[in-house]
Amino acid sequence: MNDRIVRATAANGGIRLVAVLTTESSLEAKNRHGLSYLTTTILGRAFSASLLLASSMKIMHGRVTLRVRSDGPLKGLLVDAGRDGKVRGYVGNPDLELDLIKISSNKYSFNFKKALGTGYLNIIRDNGFGEPFTSTVELVNGNIAEDIASYLYHSEQTPSAVFIGEKIQNKKIICSGGLLAQVLPKKDTDPLLVSLLEDRCKEINSFSEDLFQSKDNLLSLIKNIFPDIDDKSISEKARTQEVRFECKCSKQKSLNAMRILDKNELEDILRKEGKADLVCEFCKNKYLISCEEIKAMIKN
């Protein structure tokens, strides 16, 4: 099944629920960037988190940028996600692998905390008009879900629960996704709603396993946690949306980037290389700027 976002509400519209599947987008990033299992997992989690945040934006061209600046060997990450379901991103050290850590008697997990280290999570919300809203919080433990929950609590003062996970079998990521449950702003002073949210989320023992068992049926995943969703509160068109890895880079944007260079720098490139190969950090697409194109920039 293709990656998707599914939206629902519960408690008579008092709780907003969003689930996202990012399996194919994560695998696309893995192939493009040559990611390890660890970095595929981390970037996939960042994809899920940024798409969940972007899902609440009012306009389709609204975007969320998620950036991690930290001292860990991952060397940071950057993800750009849109309300339209398009997502792209990269990590600083794509082939990083670390030993797994034991979390119970027979379970192991990736060492997210060591990979990201200590640092900050920066979230930028851009509605396409006015100044983007920027907020920064300290990393909690690097597993992305708790870091996003911390951001929502400190920056938006919204009672929220965030679950992000993945399942790996036979050395392959077979599912990746996330779930966001929020008490809506107009209802966030209702203690009964906050208590309901907390109680339902306590029933989730392993989100990764729940995601796997849902067999890509995100509405089923939501109903397992909130069986009393408001089925008719959201139109069928608004309820589900496609998600995909897609970059906004182009040959024209590469030419525009080259034009920022001054005449001496362009002449130096022409003299030493005779051309320029530009690589997009987000998707690794390559664009050749020919000798003739560089000469035209110098002339102009």
Overview in brief:
The chain is of the alpha+beta class. The chain has eleven helices and 15 strands. It folds into two domains: 4-245, Hsp33 domain (3-Layer(bab) Sandwich); 251-299, Alpha-Beta Complex (CBS domain Like), CATH 3.90.1280.
What does this structure look like?
There is one protein chain. This protein is α+β, with helices and mostly antiparallel strands. The chain has 11 helices and 15 strands. It has helices at 23-33, 37-54, 112-116, 145-155, 191-202, 207-213, 218-225, 236-239, 251-258, 263-272, 291-299; strands at residues 4-10, 15-21, 63-70, 77-82, 86-91, 101-102, 108-109, 119-126, 133-138, 160-169, 172-183, 240-242, 244-245, 276-279, 286-289. The strands form 4 sheets. It has a 6-stranded mixed sheet, covered by helices on one side. The protein has a 5-stranded antiparallel sheet with strand order 10-11-2-1-12, sandwiched between helices. A two-stranded antiparallel ribbon has the order 6-7. α10 packs antiparallel against α11 (291-299). The model has no long low-confidence stretch (mean pLDDT 90).
Task: Give keywords.
300 residues; alpha+beta; Hsp33 domain; CBS domain Like; six-stranded mixed beta sheet; five-stranded antiparallel beta sheet; 15 strands; 34% helix; globular
Q: Residue share in helices?
A: 25-40%
Name of the top-level CATH class of the largest domain:
Alpha Beta
Strand content: 25-35%
Low-pLDDT ranges? none
Largest sheet, in brief, is: 6 strands, mixed
* Number of structural units classed as domains: 2
- N-to-C order of helices and strands: EEHHEEEEEHEEHEEHHHHEEHHEEH
Classify the secondary structure makeup into a structural class.
Answer: alpha+beta
Please give the number of β-strands: 15
